[in-house]
Amino acid sequence: MNRLVSHSQSRISLVRWALFVIPVIMLLGSLSGAMAGSTTKNAWYQTLIQPAAQPPGWVFGVVWPVLFFLIGLAFAMVLHAQSSRYRAPAIGLFVMQFLINLSWSPVFFHYHKVTAAFYIILVMLVMAIATTVAFAQVRKAAAWLMVPYLVWISFASILNFQIDNLNPDAESLYVPAVTSQIDNGG
Length: 186
Prior knowledge:
The chain has 186 residues and is an all-alpha fold. It contains six helices and no strands.
């Protein structure tokens, strides 16, 4: 069997993919959340009744970067697998599910569309499952790296559903902005 690339050259190529893809995935993920105001300090979010299973806010700040790292590494592995005939569909599925992921935070936290966010997360979950199956056809390790993401999205969809049920008026809640106007009595 003739190889055009040695094992060490192939590993270096994977490292290059990972060094590019992982930071991009992590940056886009964090920008989506930050621009949408997806923190526990979000005034609208603080007014919502939270489900019993809701973890403390800091958990989200730890979990999402780890998940973005893992799915970024999985995606880099698939991008690196240039000889796989399943590579192109796997890439397409990943990009679609990731774009759907990026849309969830603005819909939920910025636009306060809790029900719409629930349907988005369901579509995201289905697309992430399809992506994981496609990744398994390219690199089994890439599919395994997607499993924590699938578990978390499943849990997050349950939380989203419960928040929607506990807060039927969530979409119409108005939280006034904090002002520093001083009434001078005049």
